[in-house]
Amino acid sequence: MNPVVKAQMTEYVASNALSELPSSTQFEIYSIFATLNGLLGESVEAYDVHLAGVEFGVDGIAILIQGELVKNKVEAHEKMSSIKNPAIEFIFFQSKTSTSYDYGEISKFFDAIEAFFSGDLRSESDAIFDLTDAMEEIYQHGVGRRNPKINAFYIATGNYDEPKRIESLRDGFIKKLEDLNIFDQEGISVNVVGAKQLQQWYRAATTSVDVEIEFSKAIVMPSTPHVEEAYIGYLSAAQLIKLYAIRDDSGNIVGVNKSVFFDNIRDYDPKSKINIEIKESVKGYGGDDFVFRNNGVTVVSKNIDRTADRFKLEDYQIVNGCQTSNIIFDMLYGPDKADYLDLRLEEAIAVPFRLIGSKDDDFVASIIVGTNKQNPVKEEQFWALRPFMKNFEEYARSVDPEEIIYFERRENQYRGQPVERVRIIQASIMMKALAAAILYQPHRAARDYRGISAEYDKMLFQEDHDVRIYHSACFLYYRLEFLWRNQKIENKHKTFRFYILCAVGLLITSGQAVFSMKKTKIEKVARNMIDLSKDEDALKAIVSKTYEVIEKRLGGMGVAFVASQEKIRDTIRSESFSNEFREQMLKQRIPSVSRYVVS
Length: 599
Prior knowledge:
The protein is α/β, with parallel strands linked by helices. It has helices at about 5-15, 25-40, 45-50, 75-80, 105-120, 125-140, 165-180, 195-205, 235-240, 275-285, 290-295, 320-330, 345-350, 360-370, 380-385, 385-395, 425-435, 440-445, 450-455, 465-485, 495-510, 520-535, 535-555, 565-570, 575-585, and strands at about 60-65, 70, 90-95, 150-155, 190-195, 210-215, 220, 230-235, 245, 255, 295-305, 310-320, 350-355, 405-410, 425. It is built from 25 helices and 15 strands. The chain has a six-stranded mixed beta sheet. Strands 2-1-3-4-5 form a five-stranded mixed beta sheet, with helices on both faces.
């Protein structure tokens, strides 16, 4: 294996608790991470995309709806029902540690992709079965104004020199995908990848972004306690492009870095009426009037280093201006480039521009919400503004090293920082953990956590709450994930993840309402949940008992464990099943757990 790739993989494995997995599996997950997060700019957990390894010809499948990973029919349906004309993308991975590119293996990979869309791959594994169901749900109900995109990556560790035989195979496969007429014709991409690309993509995924621009028309904005420095003015298209361009080793611009956009780049539709009209206007006026017709771009940077008209930005986000940025890219370097070659748009186009330097995460979050009112903003962004969340974030990363949790109030908040990535918990994960372990509602945790947050809005995240009970639920979630990743708990138990979380909470508290307890008792519950989470034997005993109780209950309802995963999931997500589970779980006595019970 390439030594640089091996070093990167070793670093990734250590920070993601994957050391117990075989080296080939580690490489598969590392390469999925580098591609998804580094090249494609998607904040998606590579471990969740990876397949067990028994599937024919493919190591990972990601189905993304509006940038969120869906793994089954229910998740696909719920995501599509919440967004009109969502952006949908299928991404396939096959990774080999070999330095050579085997024609037969690549051909098998292409065959597996075809078989996935025909349904012939369905029986390969439970995961493929669920993903196939999700795909069929998408084509039945989710395809609106645009067909899904498809990306395929065959990855090895050598140098791919584009041999004619393999290139001919690749071209033939692309033609087959085009002829299916089920994909966006401009959104079909089939890639054969080598060590050089992997190295670049991994660095992009793990390094905080920085850039230097020339902002000669900058006017200093008024100062506030939340802002170190801020400027307003206008920027040339050539300088704006620097903020989000991906370049190859020769310095050529080859794509858009999605990771710098808060206002997600997948919302950009080049075929929308308004974007077509903007491009037509540029053709007619040569770009001179662009600055008058555009609302501009806002950038927030953690650090700004100014020398005369040169501004070096570190750890920045384009929080508003996704459409503008992508229209300009299309005209200068994208599919519309040929139509604008004679217009010299790099300097002809000027864009209204605001540059804000702030290390205050709360203020940055308020800017993001305020500048994206016309776009859908995740509810988690509003949670991030609550004073409690700041208190929780500071506490969770200041405890003993073994118990640290990194609470991510802002997407990619810890990008480029040397933290154990498996310990990063997003607001949505915290809410799911609370719903299951503290509120005892495992049937709603996976699919209705936002509904729970609305229902319990006045109960949760209060400024005077003890942060320790929230931390303990998140730490429990992390510990279970750690055990799964290191194959200390069988993957078959993952279907019941939130029931396991619920079981831990029930056994420690004997089913008492946690937020109704006295503060000293809540503190004791939190401490015991942490201690139990670190007790591997006790935690595994609860996993086994949870599985036993669920298996017995499903059997009593006539739902065998050999039933489809969809049927099992539908059953355990019912309120009646959850109520019965809680009653049965409270009757259980597990010797290794008894010392953690709070009376």
